[in-house]
Amino acid sequence: MPLVGGKKGEVIATGSTTTNLHQLVATFYKPSGNRTKILADELNFPSDIYALKSQLALKGYDPEEYLVRVKSPDGRMLRVQDIIDAMTDDIALIVLPAVLYRSGQVLDMERLTAATRERGIPIGFDLCHSIGAVEHALHDWGMDFAFWCTYKHLNGGPGSVAGLFVHEKHFGKAPGLAGWFGSKKETQFDMEHTMDPAMDAGAYQIGTPHVLSLAPVMGALDMFEDAGLNRIRKKSLELTEHIMKLIHVELEGLGFSIGNPVDNSRGGHILLEHAEAARICKALKADGVIPDFRAPNGIRLAPVALYNSFEDVWHTIRKLRVIMDEKRYEKFENKRGVVA
C-alpha cells in the first residue's frame, strides 16, 4: 500500500483507531523479567494514553509507574534523541505518534525504528495525522506495527473505518484480542471453537467491518492513487509554507506565534498560537473557515493538498486579519465548545 509503504498482506482496513491500538498492544506487549514498561510521550493524543494505561492495568501493572512518557523540552515538540535515550532495558513496548497532533512535528520514524531493532524492543506508530500527508516506508524501515484513522487526510468521513499495519515478520503471531473476522477466510464459516487465524494482517481484525463506511474510503483512496503521495506531500509543504509567510506579513503584531516546525519536519497542518485562540476559532467558523482549537491556545490550520488552493490560504489569512482588526472574536466566549 503506497500510503504507508507496506506490502498488500501487511495492511488491513478494520475497526477504529483506539480499538486497533488495543489489539496491537494486546498482541505485542509481552512483559517478561525486567522488561515490563511501555514507552510513550507526554504530547501524545489522549486516547492512545488511555488505551496504554488500561492495557497495563489489565496486566496488573500500575499505569503511573509502568507507562514512561518522554518529556517535551518546550511543550510543543519532542527530541528524537530523548526518545532513544529512554529506550532502557526495562521497556517492553514503544508506541509513538508519527506526527504530533498539536504542533504537527513529524518524528523520524526510520531512525527510531532502527534504534528499537538494536535493542530488541517492538515499536508501533499512530499514523492518524501522517497518513495521506506524509510519505512512509513502514516495511522497509522494519516497523513492527502501526494504526490510523481514515477521516482526517484520507477523507473517509466522520467515524470511517480505521486501519492497521503489521510487518510480515510477525505473520503467524496470535492476535491478543481474538475475533471471528481474524480467521482465515477459507475456514471462517466452519464455526469451530478453535480459531484458525489468517496468516497476514487480517488476523488482527476482530469483528465484521462496517461495509457502508468502507465505501467512501475506497473512493478517497482512488484519488490518492491518481494524485501520487509524493506530489501531495510537495504541495502540502508549499501550502503550509505559504500560510506561514502570510502570517508573518499579515498578522505581525497581533499576538500570534507559530508553534509548529518551520522546516520540512512538519506534517500537513500548522499550529497558530494566540491567547484568544478559542474565540478566534469560533469567529473563523462564523466566517466560513473551519479550524481546530487545541488547548490551551492553539489554532490548527490544515490546508489540504487535494482540494485547497493557494488562493484559499490567502483568503483564510485575510479573513483572520479582519477578525482581529475589527475584534469580531470578542463576540464569542474564549472557551471551546463540546467539539473543538
Sequence-ordered SSE layout with sheet pairings:
Blueprint: E1 11-13, H1 17-28, E2 37-41, H2 46-58, H3 63-66, E3 67-70, H4 80-85, E4 91-97, H5 109-119, E5 123-126, H6 138-141, E6 145-148, E7 163-166, H7 211-227, H8 229-250, E8 257-258, E9 270-273, H9 277-286, E10 292-294, E11 298-301, H10 310-325
Parallel strand pairs: 2-3, 2-4, 4-5, 5-6
Antiparallel strand pairs: 1-7, 6-7, 8-9, 9-11, 10-11
Helix pairs in contact: 1-2, 8-10
Description:
A hairpin with a 3-residue loop joins strand 10 (292-294) and strand 11 (298-301). The chain is α/β, with parallel strands linked by helices. The protein starts with 10 loop residues before the first strand and ends in a 15-residue tail after the last helix. The model has no long low-confidence stretch (mean pLDDT 96). It is 34% helix and 13% strand. It has ten helices and eleven strands. It has a seven-stranded mixed sheet, sandwiched between helices. Strands 8-9-11-10 form a four-stranded antiparallel sheet, covered by helices on one side. It has helices at 17-28, 46-58, 63-66, 80-85, 109-119, 138-141, 211-227, 229-250, 277-286, 310-325; strands at residues 11-13, 37-41, 67-70, 91-97, 123-126, 145-148, 163-166, 257-258, 270-273, 292-294, 298-301. The relative contact order is 0.13. It is globular, with a radius of gyration of 21 Å.
